[in-house]
Amino acid sequence: FSNGLSENTFLSYVSTFDNKHLVLSLCTGTGLAGLLGSLWYVFLTAFNCGTSTIFSTLLITPILIGISYFGLLSKLPSCNTTPLAEWYSNFFHKITKQNIYFNCKCFKNKMLLDLAYLPHLGPFIVSVIFVFLFEYYINQCLHELIYFEDFILTHSQQYSWYQVTYNVSAFCVKSTLNFITIKSIWYFPIMQGINASILTVEAILLFLPHFTFALVFVFWEGLMGGYTYSTIFYTLYSEAETERRPFAMAFIAIAESIGISCAAVLAAPAHDFICSLPEDYFT
């Protein structure tokens, strides 16, 4: 909940500033957050810290987000800086039937204009939903099932390093958008779908000869997810109409959440189905 709320808020907020580097910084920050989080988990588990202890150490994160949002960010010129009591007094003093009608009409017109812009977002919405559907299906369902017995790392350690590898690749591509740009957004869901299919077969048959081969596919998964996230938001910031930009970026963030939620719904039964297959099912 907090992730979805804060991401939508920050994306809409960033889109109001005329500085493309803010979008690049936001993309880099999301990649760095995933990388540091996964490394922090690996670091603490190496000292036999329990999961509850690890998550307890991260409770300071919402506080830091609040401090950064309310204390560090610049206010928009359009933001109301009037003291709260005075604002309420002015509001109730000036409120009239005509003002209510005018404000409602303006809101309705803006909403209609935003909705009319949705067809322009169609390719972005579809790409984001399917990329993150496949991506989080891999993360939530397949990583746990791809296990190499004759390897130095335990099952839980292999799972942790899948997460680290995924976040390393996502961070790398989100940080290099200035240097590498791919315009064809349809490329991402297709490649991520192929990746999910290969890893699904691997989870069932365990045909890969070594742990490092699985890491390659996980690294590729992170590349596709990172490129999708950074490319689409940067493209929207650069090409969307200025008045529609906050709506566009917030709506794409919602599409991302839809893809992740669908992946969660898909991952649970898929995980149970794969686990229910007998070992000699395909022999």
What does this structure look like?
- The model has no long low-confidence stretch (mean pLDDT 80).
- This protein is mostly helical.
- The protein has 11 helices and no strands.
- The longest helix has 32 residues, at 245-276.
- The protein has one domain (5-276).
- The two termini are 44 Å apart.
- The chain has helices spanning 2-14, 20-45, 51-56, 60-72, 84-94, 97-116, 118-142, 155-174, 187-205, 211-239, 245-276.
- Helix 2 (20-45) runs antiparallel to helix 8.
Identify the notable features of this structure and list them briefly.
11 helices; 283 residues; lysosome; Battenin_disease_Cln3; mainly alpha; membrane; Battenin; globular
In short:
It is a multi-pass membrane protein. This protein has 283 residues and is mainly alpha-helical.
Furnish the topology, listing elements before pairings:
Elements: H1 2-14, H2 20-45, H3 51-56, H4 60-72, H5 84-94, H6 97-116, H7 118-142, H8 155-174, H9 187-205, H10 211-239, H11 245-276
Helix pairs in contact: 1-11, 2-8, 2-10, 7-9, 7-10, 7-11, 8-10, 9-10
Transmembrane segments: 22-42, 54-72, 117-138, 185-208, 214-236, 248-268
Protein name: Battenin
InterPro entries: Battenin_disease_Cln3, MFS_trans_sf
Radius of gyration: 22 Å
What integer is the average pLDDT? Answer: 80
Count the helices. How many?
Answer: 11
Taken together, the total number of domains comes to: 1
Q: How would the global form be characterised? A: globular
What is the helix/strand order? HHHHHHHHHHH
Question: Termini separation (Å)?
Answer: 44 Å
Helical percent range?
over 70%
Q: Please describe the biggest sheet, giving its number of strands, its sense, and whether it closes into a barrel.
A: none
Weakly predicted, low-confidence segments: none
Instruction: Tally the beta strands.
Output: 0
Percent of sequence in beta strands:
under 5%
Give the helix/strand class. Answer: mainly alpha
